[in-house]
C-alpha cells in the first residue's frame, strides 16, 4: 500500500513539472523579477536578501517535519545529501561567471533549488503514512 501511495504521489508531483515551460519551472523568477529593476549592487543585495527569506522558510519547514517524524534519520541524510547536490549543482550551473554577476547567478540558483526543496518536503506532509510520523502527529492532524 505504501508503494502505491508513494507512486501515485510521485506521478502527481512529476506531471506538473513536465507540463511547465522552462521559465515557469524557474522558481526563482518572482525574486529575480523583484530585484531586476535595481542597480547592480542593490540588485545583488536584494537577491541575497531574497535567498535568506527562502532559506529560512526551508529551515522552518525542515525543523517542523524533523520534529514530527518518528525516526528522522532518513530526512537528515536526505537533507545533507541535498545540500551537497545544491552546492555542486549551482557551482556547475554558473560555470565561469565572474564579478557581481557571480553572486547574482549563485543566489538565483540557490533560490530556485531551495524553492524546489520546499516543494519536496511539503509533499511528505500530504503523504500520510509514507514516512512514519510520531503517533501524536496523526491524532492532532498536524501532518496536514
Word description of this protein:
There is one protein chain. The protein is mostly helical and 144 residues long. It has one domain: Substrate Binding Domain Of Dnak, Chain:A, Domain 2, CATH 1.20.1270. The protein contains six helices and no strands. The longest helix has 29 residues. The two termini are 20 Å apart.
Reconstruct the topology from this structure.
Blueprint: H1 2-19, H2 29-36, H3 40-68, H4 73-94, H5 100-126, H6 135-140
The oligomeric state is single chain
Any idea of the CATH class?
Mainly Alpha
Our estimate of the beta-strand percent is under 5%
How much helical structure, as a percent, in the residues?
over 70%
Q: What is the N-to-C succession of helices and strands?
A: HHHHHH
Q: What is the radius of gyration computed over CA atoms, rounded to a whole number of angstroms? A: 17 Å
Describe the main β-sheet briefly: none
| Structural class estimated from helices and strands | mainly alpha
Structurally, the number of domains stands at 1
Number of strands: 0
What is the CATH fold-level name? Substrate Binding Domain Of Dnak, Chain:A, Domain 2
Average pLDDT figure: 78
Short description:
Helices cover 76% and strands 0% of the residues. The longest helix is centred in the middle third of the chain and has 29 residues.
Features:
single chain, 144 residues, mainly alpha, Substrate Binding Domain Of Dnak, Chain:A, Domain 2, elongated
Amino acid at each position: 500500500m505504501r508503494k502505491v501511495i508513494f507512486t501515485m504521489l510521485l506521478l502527481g508531483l512529476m506531471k506538473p513539472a513536465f507540463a511547465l515551460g522552462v521559465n515557469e519551472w524557474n522558481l526563482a523568477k518572482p525574486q529575480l523579477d523583484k530585484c531586476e529593476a535595481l542597480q547592480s549592487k542593490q540588485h545583488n543585495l536584494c537577491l541575497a536578501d531574497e535567498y535568506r527569506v527562502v532559506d529560512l522558510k526551508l529551515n522552518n519547514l525542515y525543523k517542523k517535519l524533523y520534529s514530527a517524524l518518528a525516526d528522522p534519520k532518513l530526512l537528515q541524510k536526505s537533507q545533507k545529501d541535498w545540500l551537497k547536490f545544491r552546492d555542486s549543482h549551482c557551482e556547475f550551473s554558473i560555470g565561469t561567471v565572474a564579478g557581481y554577476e557571480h553572486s547574482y547567478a549563485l543566489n538565483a540558483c540557490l533560490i530556485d533549488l531551495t524553492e524546489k526543496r520546499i516543494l519536496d518536503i511539503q509533499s511528505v506532509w500530504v503523504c500520510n503514512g509514507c514516512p512514519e510520523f510520531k503517533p501524536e502527529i496523526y491524532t492532532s492532524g498536524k501532518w496536514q
